Amino acid sequence: MDAKQWSAGEARRRIRSGKWTGPTAGLAIAHAQANLVAVPREHAYDFLLFCQRNPRPCPLLEVLDAGKVEPDCARGADLRTDLPRYRIFRDGRLDAEPEDLEAAWRDDLVSFLIGCSFSFEAPLLAAGLEVRHLSEGRNVPMYRTARETRSAGPFRGPLVVSMRPFARTEVARAVEITSRYPRVHGGPVQVGEPGALGIADLARPDYGDAVTVKPGEVPLFWACGVTPQAALVAARLPFAVTHAPGHMLVTDLPCSGPFPGDLA
Amino acid sequence: MDAKQWSAGEARRRIRSGKWTGPTAGLAIAHAQANLVAVPREHAYDFLLFCQRNPRPCPLLEVLDAGKVEPDCARGADLRTDLPRYRIFRDGRLDAEPEDLEAAWRDDLVSFLIGCSFSFEAPLLAAGLEVRHLSEGRNVPMYRTARETRSAGPFRGPLVVSMRPFARTEVARAVEITSRYPRVHGGPVQVGEPGALGIADLARPDYGDAVTVKPGEVPLFWACGVTPQAALVAARLPFAVTHAPGHMLVTDLPCSGPFPGDLA
Fold first, then answer.
1. CA B126, chain centre distance (Å)
2. Residue A215, preceding bond cis, omega within 30 degrees?
3. What does the angle CA B119 – CA B120 – CA B123 come to, to the nearest 5 degrees?
4. Is B198 at the interface with chain A, CB within 8 A?
5. What local confidence, expressed as pLDDT, does residue B263 receive?
6. Which of B5, B23, B189, B240 is most buried, most CB within 10 Å of its CB?
7. What confidence tier does A264 reach under pLDDT thresholds 50, 70, 90?
8. How distant is the Cα of A44 from the closest Cα of chain B, in angstroms?
9. Residue B120 per-residue DSSP state
10. How confident is the model at residue B108 (pLDDT cuts 50, 70, 90)?
11. Which residues are paired to B60 by β-bridges?
12. What is the C-alpha to C-alpha distance for residues B149 and B147, in angstroms, rounded to an integer?
C-alpha cells in the first residue's frame, strides 16, 4: 500500500521496526504529525511558558506527564522508538542523532508534542495544489529567520519557518486553506518576501532540503515546530531531546481535528 | 460618557479609584476582558499545564513573570488594584473578597490572564442580538457542570459555563459569531440542554446572577474562565488569588484580536 494511505498505527510500526527511516512528509497523510521536544521536569515550566507565548510556531497538541512515553493522541505508541530519527542536545549543543531513544531516555523527561505543518498538506493536495517537496520526494526546507520569538526563562531565539512555493494564481487558496488549521501552525507568517524574514538564499535551508522554486512562483513561509530547537540551543539546557527536523511522530488525530481541548 | 464607550485605560482608572465597583460586563466593550488567576511560582507549572489541557475554558491571553503586576496587554495597569473585586483562596477555601490586593499580594505570585466571554458580547450586540444580562443590568449567570476538566497535577474539577438565552431564530447566528473568537472561549459547548451538562435549575446559578429566560428561548452555554476557581478549590492550594466572578480586567486588546501570539 502507498505510504500516503497507511494508518497512523501502521506508519508507527514501520518506523519502530526500522523499515521506514526517512522524513515523514507524505506518510499516513490523513493524520496529524507532531514535533517532539522533551526536557527535564525542572525546565518544563519555562518551556511550557515559551510555547504559550509563541503559539504560532509552538501550537501544543499534548504535554505528557514526566516519564510518560505513550501519548493520548497516539495510542500504543512509544515516543522513544516511534519517530524515525531524534536529536540529543547536551549543554545546548547537538550531541547525537540516534534512531531511537532507548539509551538516552530519562524518567524525569516531560514530552511536548507540537503541531506540524505536514498536517495541512493533505488538504492542500485535496484542493489540487502541488506541494513541491512531496513531488520532489524531499524533506521540507526550513529556515532560521531574523524574527525573534518571545522569551520565557532561558528560552529565546529566532522563529524558524518552513517554505512551500506556489504559483501566483494559487497563493490566496494556499493561505485560505492552511489558515483553517491553527493547531498545526495555521496560515503563513509571510508571503513572497524571504528578505523580510532575513532569509538570504532559499537554496540554502538551515534544516531539511532545498526544493525547486520555478520562475514566477511565490515562496510562502509557515511558522515551524523546529523553532524550539533553536531555543533549546539558546537555553543551553544540560540535556534535552527532540525529533530530527522532518522526522515526526505520526499521531492518531485526523488532520482536520478536532484536536485535544478543541471540545470542552 | 456611556460606560460602554470608555477606553480600556479609562475603565481601569475608574475601577482603581473605586468609582466603579460592580461587574465589568458592558464596560469598554470594544476591549477584551480577562479572568485573573495568580498562584505561587511553585504551583505555576501545574496550573499552566491545566490551562494547556483545557483551552476551551482556559484560553490564555498572557502569563506574567513571577511578581509582575503590569501586563503587556494592559499597559499602565496594576493587577493588584485594577479589577473591581478579587477572591483570596487559602487551603482551597474562599477566604475573602477584597476590592484590592495591596495587602494580600506576594512577590512569588505568577499571574495568568484568561480570555473572557464578555469580549464577544460587542459583536453579538453589533449583529442586533440581545444579550440578556446586559439588558437586565446584571452579572452573567454561571454554572458548575457535571463535565470534568482534564486534570494537571492537583488541578481538577468541573467545567464552569456562562449562559445566555436567545430566541430560536437567533441561535445559529449566536453560535456563528462567537465561534470566531476562540481566544475568548469561542462558540458554545452546549445549546439548549442544561440537563446534558448536569445543570438542574437555570434560576439558581452558582456564580453571577440569574437572568430571564423567556418562553421559547434557548439557553446557550459557553466555557467560562471561572473554571479555574473550581480547580483551585480542588487543588487545595495554600494560597491563590483570582478575580471575583464577573469582575474582570479590562485589557487594551481589541475584542476581535489579534491577541498575543496570533501573529508570529
1. 21
2. no
3. 125
4. no
5. 80
6. B240
7. confident
8. 7
9. G
10. very high
11. B114
12. 7
